[in-house]
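Example record

The entry below shows one chain as it appears in the dataset: sequence first, then structure tokens.
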Amino acid sequence: MTEKELITGLRKGEMSAYEHAFHQYYPRFVYFVDYIVKDQHTAKDLVQNVFLKVWRFRDRLNENLSLVNYLYVLTNREELNYLRTCKASEALETVMEELALEDAGSDYEKIRTIYDYICTHVTYDQIHKHSKYYHMKSTSYAALIRQTATCQGYCVLLYRMLRDNGIGCRI
């Protein structure tokens, strides 16, 4: 089955085309992701997510473009998102150890400690604040790793740090 036939079958919702694409490309992409993330179980999960997205958004497939290239782009994005999440989680864990919140008494003291940390270590992202293409500006990742964010990034980081410390809050 050619790539064009696969894409046509996928667009029509033919399970046989999906199964063929999965069996043909899944092992190659698991190998690719495993090389980067160094964990075969995680690699399999990430590539399965990619194939679920292909199926979910099959109507967006373009018959004139390469399916392999499309899978590569989706896999790369999935992998980068995973690595960002890992990096942010590790950084958050380090910050939380540094803050030693278990020694803080009340929830108010914990909230104040976290708030002070964010105000001290995160600067307002003046460069990207009006950019409609730079989506990192409003994430806890940007606030924690890059130490710049817009107001939404501040709030998301505060919410995440409070939630991880067992303090109930809503945004």
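Notes for this example: The two ends are 50 Å apart (CA to CA). The mean pLDDT is 84.
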